[in-house]
């Protein structure tokens, strides 16, 4: 039975990058939700900032799923070291 799907270094890298993604996309979502001038003050900005904010939050939620999955993979690698038969 294979509990680990990805290697430990890959799971660690994915966890860190996904955490950054959650933080950045949540920040973008907040900026569009509050219609900050830096995000919505230009003529080239989206006409509906609320919809953009929802997409940013949904994307952050997907990245949060990657954080949970890869975090579980890290725990699996710590609990069942390589070469141990179950």
Keywords for this structure?
mainly alpha, 86 residues, single chain
Mind explaining what this structure looks like?
Keywords: Membrane, Transmembrane, Transmembrane helix. Its main location: membrane. The chain is mostly helical. It is 71% helix and 0% strand. The mean pLDDT is 90.
Number of strands: 0
Helix and strand sequence: HHH
Largest pleated sheet = none
Helix segment count? Answer: 3
Radius of gyration: 18 Å
Report helical residue fraction: over 70%
Which stretches are poorly predicted, pLDDT < 50 over at least 5 residues? Answer: none
> First CA to last CA: what distance?
7 Å
Dominant shape: rod-shaped
Mean pLDDT: 90
How much strand content do the residues show? Answer: under 5%
Which structural class best describes the helix and strand composition?
mainly alpha
Strand-helix topology:
Blueprint: H1 8-33, H2 37-40, H3 49-79
Helix pairs in contact: 1-3
In short:
This protein has helices at about 10-35, 35-40, 50-80. It has about 90 residues and is an all-alpha fold. It starts with 7 loop residues before the first helix and ends in a 7-residue tail after the last helix.
